[in-house]
Structures are given as C-alpha cells and as structure tokens.
Amino acid sequence: MAAYEFTVTVKTQYLEEQSDPSRSHYVFAYAITIVNTGTVPAQLISRHWVITDANNHVQEVRGLGVVGHQPFLQPGEQFEYTSGTSLKTPQGSMHGEYFCVAEDGEQFDVRIPEFVLSLPRTLH
C-alpha cells in the first residue's frame, strides 16, 4: 500500500538585529526541513500557517509553495528552507500544514506541529 507522508522539523531563532522591542516588533527566523518519509514521490503545492502572538492575535498566511519553490521529493529526499515572521510580542507560536500532491495524483495534507517563537532566556 502506498504511504503519503512528509515529516517536518523546525528550528527557530530570534533575530535581535531586525527586532525593535521599543516598538513591539520582534522578528523570528524558522528553518524547516521536510523529508518525504512515505513511499510515493510527491510535490509540496501550498502552505497554510497560523501565527499566534502572546496576546492571542492570530494571523493566517496561505500561499503557493515555500520561499518560491514547490519541491518535488522522492521517498527519502528532503528540502530545507528558512523563512521568518514578526510578532508584536516577545513570545508566540506557529503551526499549519502543507498541501501536497503525490505522483499518482493522490492529494494529502502534512501537519506542521506547533512550535514556539520566543526570545532567548525568557519563559512564560
């Protein structure tokens, strides 16, 4: 039986040089690694992000591809990219999903588990 599965891992970083806390502007980078852990070649078509700051202000972002790419991954292949977001608070979180289409035409969503955006050395 065919398996349609991508595994997503995320590393985050606070970009102090691009942030301005006095103006409630906090910038974070996130590095994403997507691995085709299924058995069928598939392409990432679009993304949907839900970004929430510490004041529970929610921003949704939808779009084609990731950083201008719609990577086609064979089983075992991976694609890495770095992007970023800004928040009005020093903490927040993101989660979402990628919409993918397999080589055989099967459509599937890949859940991106929630991850925390936070200044270094700060805890809620």
Q: What this model shows, in words?
A:
This protein has 124 residues and is mostly beta strands. It has a single domain (4-116), classed as Immunoglobulin-like (Sandwich), CATH 2.60.40.1470. The chain has no helices and eight strands. Strands 3, 4, 5, 7 and 8 form a five-stranded antiparallel sheet that branches. It has a three-stranded antiparallel sheet with strand order 1-2-6, with no helix packed on it. A hairpin with a 4-residue loop joins β7 and β8 (107-118). The termini are far apart. The model has no long low-confidence stretch (mean pLDDT 95). Residues 1-124 form the ApaG domain. InterPro entries: ApaG_domain, ApaG_sf, Uncharacterised_ApaG. This is Protein ApaG. It comes from Herbaspirillum aquaticum.
Question: What is the element string, with H for helices and E for strands?
Answer: EEEEEEEE
Rg on CA atoms, Å = 16 Å
Fraction of residues in helices?
A: under 10%
Distance separating the two termini: 45 Å
Unreliable segments of 5+ consecutive residues = none
**For this structure, what is the CATH homologous superfamily?**
ApaG domain
What is the number of helical segments per DSSP (H or I, 4+ residues)? 0
**Based on CA inertia axes, which overall geometry fits?**
elongated
Mean pLDDT: 95
Instruction: Describe the main β-sheet briefly.
Output: 5 strands, antiparallel
CATH architecture: Sandwich
Topology:
Layout: E1 6-14, E2 26-36, E3 42-53, E4 58-64, E5 72-73, E6 78-87, E7 91-102, E8 107-118
Antiparallel strand pairs: 1-2, 2-6, 3-4, 3-5, 3-7, 7-8
